[in-house]
Write a structure and sequence with these properties.
The complex is a heterodimer. By secondary structure, chain A is an alpha/beta fold. In chain A, 47% of the residues lie in helices and 10% in strands. Chain A folds into two domains: 129 residues, Glutathione S-transferase Yfyf (Class Pi), Chain A, domain 2; 148 residues, Rossmann fold (3-Layer(aba) Sandwich). A four-stranded parallel sheet of chain A has the order 6-5-7-8, sandwiched between helices. A two-stranded parallel sheet of chain A has the order 1-2. Classes of the chains: A alpha/beta, B mainly alpha.
Chain lengths: 303, 137
Amino acid sequence: MKIPYYPGCTLHERARDFDVSAKECAKALGVELEELPIWTCCGAVYPLVTDSVMDVLAGVRNLSYASRLGDKVVTLCSFCYNVLKRSNNVMRGNKDKRDKANLFLRADTEARERIPSYTHEDYEGQVEVLHYIEMLRDVVGYDRVAEAVTKKLEGLKVAPYYGCMLLRPAKEMKFDDPEQPTIFEEFLEALGCDVVDFPMKTECCGGFQVVKDEDLAASCSQNVVVSAVKRDADVIVTTCPLCRYNLDRHQDKMAEEVKGFRKLPVIYFTQLLGIALGVDKEHLDFSDNTVDPRPVLAEKSLI
Amino acid sequence: MRLRLTTDMIRDDMLDRVETLSGQKLMACYQCGRCSAGCPVVDEMDIVPSEVIRLLQLGQLDEVLASKTIWTCASCLQCASRCPKGVEFSNICDALRAIALRARLSEPRVDADEVTPVMVTDAPQMGVVGALRKLNG
């Protein structure tokens, strides 16, 4: 089964470990992620002001490319997922903006050269935007994921961190309950993990503010990591490269500031899935992690 | 001295602009404070989210535009998610940033020359793109 895949800028640069592990896991589950033949950055943040058409155009353009390949598009990065899904809602529900955006799409000659099936047809929001974890649940099925597990992750205490962008605004994202989501927990149970519930699982890591004010992001991230440490987690899993960065990179500072702090590795959920599915370890790269997850994974005889 | 305040005295085009740009009704807020209580970056703000809305209800746009608060918001949407009246403070914040940046009342907040090389090469691209769009307009 082939499903169109939108990686986004970060997955082709800083988060290659996420991209590669996700593709390999999909392959092991009988799904081929077909990368769009042409794509651009989605813009990373969805505009919260009402008058912006330009700011949704990047997302819309990518959706339009995806619509030539299939009726779904899968993405991994939480920011991309948020931007694509909300931009898609604009195309479905806002005629004025849809018409304006389509004027730009019609002028997109590069797409017509690169995608043979690209025509002048307008884009109207027909593609369904899926997060990879929704694909696992709804297209593959968690029961089939569980059947494909060759190494149960028993004894590994995993804290699932959702962050913001998958969940909010709930009425548009329709991903899960914004305060008590469970999609991640059910996934981890399929892998045989001990799921650790912790109160900060939907709190913000500081997000893009890290670029302007690193201390601010460090303090937000500290609240999240300390909460998982207190619940005795072995590892945090996330779906977002920026969350991974914020939670992982600031742990030296946390160790200085918090008494009894224990460093906690932060890995992508696809890396954990890869271990469970027996994906070749050359595709599971942990070298970018500041807090190395390999000792705890080795201690549990998982790598 | 007795002072009688009416919405006619307070409202002006700029407040209408905030409401239009944010898509939010400022007067819907009844000051319960859940936005401020749930905000993960509230400690770094000089005026808390519910106070920003109160100041806007009273027409004090200049004070709000000069605050640190509007540049501190990380757009995590926790406030919007928890508001019992459906007021999305995060969107009001984006509108205030847009007003400040478009009218050049404020300098861009991320100086591309001052972003450290470590940040450019080490941080995920989405963070840098997001910061530039949110804080520089």
